[in-house]
Amino acid sequence: MEIRQIVEKWLRANNYDGLVTEDCGCEVDDLMPCDNYRPDCTAGYKVPCPGGEDCPADGDCPWHISTSKEATNGKEQKKKVN
Predict the structure, then answer these.
(1) What is this structure's pTM?
(2) How much is the average pLDDT of 56-66?
(3) How far apart are CA 48 and CA 77, in angstroms?
């Protein structure tokens, strides 16, 4: 079993939506799109984009992966990376 499969299984079993770091995030269905395991990734939840100044991607996204289930502000949410 590969790291990606182990992480995906754990995230799903613990009701997380994806992974997040300081500068990126990914959904559980598209884990590690950079094809690189980052040791600083943290389990996170999908939350709506706050838009405007509170969005780290300038509002150009429908959602973020956040370490909190609550959509608080852009500084605590990380943008989706394609």
Answers:
(1) 0.77
(2) 83
(3) 10
